[in-house]
Amino acid sequence: MVNLGYTLMTEQSGPRELVGYAVRAEEVGFDFAVSSDHHSPWLTEQGHAPYAWSVLGAVAQATERIGLMTYVTCPTMRYHPAVVAQKAATLALLSEGRFSLGLGSGENLNEHVVGRGWPALETRHEMLAEAVEVIRRLLAGDLVTYRGTHFQVDSARVWDLPDEPVRLGLAVAGDRAVERFAPLADDLIGVEPDPGLVERWNAVDGAPRIGSGARAIGQLPICWDPDEDAAVARAHEQFRWFAGGWDVNADLPTTAGFSSATQFVRPEDVADNIPCGPDLDRIVEAVGAFWDAGFTDVALVQVGDEGQDRFLHEAAGPLLEKLRAAAPGG
């Protein structure tokens, strides 16, 4: 059975609104909620970037059942991995075991703000591998002293730990990233329904097997609205940055850069990539590409703060029914 999630999109909503959306997402029947972890929105029009960890702490107290996850945190630039381990353990305790830690190599947009520049991809992968090692050891309760190429840790310990270890999901895409990070993770995170990604992951020696305890967690933007034209206009205003692809998105440093890079993206271009309007069956078809590719979990992103309440109160329930009926095992 596929798990269906809701995205707390910190780039498009304020902190109090996000907590309210999480409560409603649990009420309507979503299985889990993921939160972006950004210092900046992608576009000025989105207009928000609250601190994800404070939001998730509040969500953990305001909800009872729904799973929680960062999607994703970069543990190498804005945050030292020792601090990420402490935050993850605390959130796991606050949520009574409902939290998983999603990690990735980050984007220039969010990480350059601490004034350390933006490393090349290979260096970012080296940093992420070291960070995962530090986080694993601290979440295991070890007293850690570590001397790596990129990080140093001096007699660190996380004192408040959950009974069950926090699961680590790692965002991967290309073959080299899969080969390197699959053995270091508990779960796979992928933002596109690449039909070969799960197969490549499962073929790596030492990787936890998707479908046999490990999760493959994808994410899909949608823009539901009773008025299709309004949905397309909102998706274009708020989500045209998505058209650049992750090779571009990882490297642009500012909202102005994303605005310039997407100035020629048309509303119809966005609508070709994001299901827009009232047609729930179109959304089901788009989500189906993920489960066809072997993903076990899919988190939906409802584009824009405007209309979020209406989506959760009018469309989310019927959509979840359709998705669960269509999903493998449904």
Question: How would you describe this structure to a colleague?
Answer:
- The chain has 330 residues and is of the alpha/beta class.
- It has one domain: Luciferase-like domain (TIM Barrel, Alpha-Beta Barrel), CATH 3.20.20.30.
- 42% of the residues lie in helices and 15% in strands.
- The protein contains 13 helices and 10 strands.
- The strands form 2 sheets. It has an 8-stranded parallel beta barrel with strand order 1-2-3-4-7-8-9-10, surrounded by 5 helices.
- α1 (15-28) crosses α2 (52-62), α1 runs parallel beside α13 and α12 (280-292) crosses α13.
- The longest helix has 19 residues, at 121-139.
- It is globular, with a radius of gyration of 19 Å.
Give a quick set of tags describing it:
alpha/beta, single chain, 42% helix, eight-stranded parallel barrel, two-stranded antiparallel sheet, TIM Barrel, 15% strand, 330 residues
Which secondary structure elements does this structure contain, and how are they paired or packed?
Layout: E1 3-8, H1 15-28, E2 32-35, H2 52-62, E3 67-70, H3 81-94, E4 99-103, H4 108-111, H5 121-139, E5 144-147, E6 152-156, E7 167-171, H6 175-181, E8 187-189, H7 197-202, E9 216-222, H8 228-239, H9 246-249, H10 255-261, H11 267-273, H12 280-292, E10 297-302, H13 308-326
Parallel strand pairs: 1-2, 1-10, 2-3, 3-4, 4-7, 7-8, 8-9, 9-10
Antiparallel strand pairs: 5-6
